[in-house]
Amino acid sequence: MTTERIGPPLIADEREMLRAFLDFHRATLAMKCEGLTDGELRRQACPPSTLSLLGLLRHMAEVERTWFRRVIGGEDVPLVWSATGDYQEAYDARTASGSEAFEAWRREVEHARRIEREAESLAVVAHNPRWGEDVSLRLVMLHMMHEYARHNGHADLLREAVDGSVGV
């Protein structure tokens, strides 16, 4: 498996720019996790933190699902790895499978892309029950980029601890 990461355009309209930057960050996380065994993906590099690449991948599947399907799409779907709605459960990758996590993450990314493409505009508003506030698709796209960028920084450190790889 080789992830293709395409740099965002230097000139584009707002929606295409947001879409491209989000996909760039998604590809970065995939690249950080690529080519590792389940054991390597589970490796926790910064004790006492239990954070791992596999946990990050599972967490981002939950984040994609929540913001796009549950909030913007209004779908009544449970979290992927928690029956109780606890987002932290996704981080617990002690017995998780990389192939299962990649499959769930890719599936949620495809749902997210479809929901974003089908939305009339970035100004579409939906209710986020967790915040008790209405949010726009624009905010969701920006929030997702922020979430990936922050976690990709973690992924950089985790991957370097596994096999010395730096950069992408």
Structure commentary:
By secondary structure, the chain is mainly alpha-helical. It has five helices and two strands. Strands 1-2 form a two-stranded antiparallel sheet. α3 packs antiparallel against α5 (137-163). It is globular.
Keywords:
168 residues; mainly alpha; 5 helices; globular
Sequence-ordered SSE layout with sheet pairings:
Blueprint: H1 14-33, H2 38-42, H3 53-72, H4 98-118, E1 125-128, E2 133-136, H5 137-163
Antiparallel strand pairs: 1-2
Helix pairs in contact: 1-5, 3-4, 3-5
Secondary structure tally, helices: 5
Structural class of the secondary structure composition? Answer: mainly alpha
Strand count, sense and barrel status of the largest sheet are: 2 strands, antiparallel
Please, what is the average pLDDT? 93
Shape: globular
Low-confidence parts = none
**SSE string, helices as H and strands as E:** HHHHEEH
> Which range best describes the helical content: under 10%, 10-25%, 25-40%, 40-55%, 55-70% or over 70%?
55-70%
Share of β-strand residues:
under 5%
Strand order of the largest sheet: 1-2
> How many beta-strand segments?
2
Distance between the termini: 15 Å
Radius of gyration: 16 Å
